[in-house]
Every structure is written in structure tokens, then in C-alpha cells.
Amino acid sequence: LGVLIYQGVTTEELHRLDVGHVDLQEGTLYVPGGPRRNSRTLALQSVQVLDLERYIKRIRPQLVKRSGPTERLFISMEGSLNLKNSLHHMLRRLKRIYPEIKNAQQIRQSVVTHWLKTHNLREVQYMAGHRWVSSTERYQQNNLEDLQKEINRYHPLR
Questions:
Q1: One-character DSSP codes across 138-156
Q2: By C-alpha distance, which of 122, 101, 117, 102 is closest to 40?
Q3: How far is CA 4 from CA 26, 104, 108, 118, in A?
Q4: Number of H helices, E strands in the chain
Q5: Which residues pair with 130 in a beta bridge?
Q6: Which residues of the chain are modeled with pLDDT < 50?
Q7: Cα distance between residue 20 and residue 135, in whole Å
Q8: How far apart are the first and last CA of the chain?
Q9: What is the pLDDT of residues 38-82, one digit of tens each?
């Protein structure tokens, strides 16, 4: 969940992460590119470093016993390399606490929108792995549309 929130990765990218993509000493995560996204190296938050270290050194070896040898970073609790069910269950539990959360895509959209408030457009393009700056600019437009919806919803003269 931390990688989805802090690094804004897609679920597709989450599946492609390997143990070697995490550099705990440098506090970075390498996100490999794909057909629609560029690769990038993103900073880990300090709370993530401790959690990832514990996961890689203590929890993941137990999961590898169930799944068999693999370099994949994340493995489901059942030992499956397919994270779809695990993500589904995790998001369902998260929705109980935060009903406004719809799916992992919404989390990514919120992260990119937040980045646009604190970083320049080109930095966000890199951080999000967008090949084209127009992909990043769409999040600015989406943000304006969300604001317009809120205004229409709560405006006293409506």
C-alpha cells in the first residue's frame, strides 16, 4: 500500500518490481518502464525503508517457500505471484475505513494530482513515468473538473 501511495505506481508496475529494484541504503525504488511508461527511480519515505527492510528480510523469505524461487518483490500471502486477489482484498479492507476510495487507479490519480500541487510539471511527468507531458497535464484538467463538480455541488446559489 505504501508503494501505491508514496510512489504512485500502477498495479501493473507493482507486479514487475523485483527485490533488486529496492535500494535500502540509498532509500530508492527503481520502477522499470513498460510499453506505456518510462522507468524511473523514486525516493522512499523513511517509514517505508523500515517496513520494506522487515518485509524483504523476514516476511518475504517465508512467502518464497510457498511460491518457489522468484526475484519478484511482492508475493501474495498464499505464495502466488499474481497479486490481483491480494490487492483486491487489501483495497476492500481499506474501503471499510475510507469509503471514498474506489480502487488503486484512484489512489494513483490522487497521488499525481497531489504531486502537481508541490512539484513542477516535468518533475511530475518523471515521477509518474509518463512518456508524454500531455499525460501529466490531463491530471491538471481532471483536478479542475473535480473542483468544478464540488463548486456545483456545494455552491449556495445552486
A1: HHHHHHHHHHHHHHHHH-T
A2: 122
A3: 20, 7, 7, 18
A4: 8, 3
A5: 37
A6: none
A7: 29
A8: 39
A9: 999 999 999 999 999 999 999 999 999 988 999 999 998 887 778
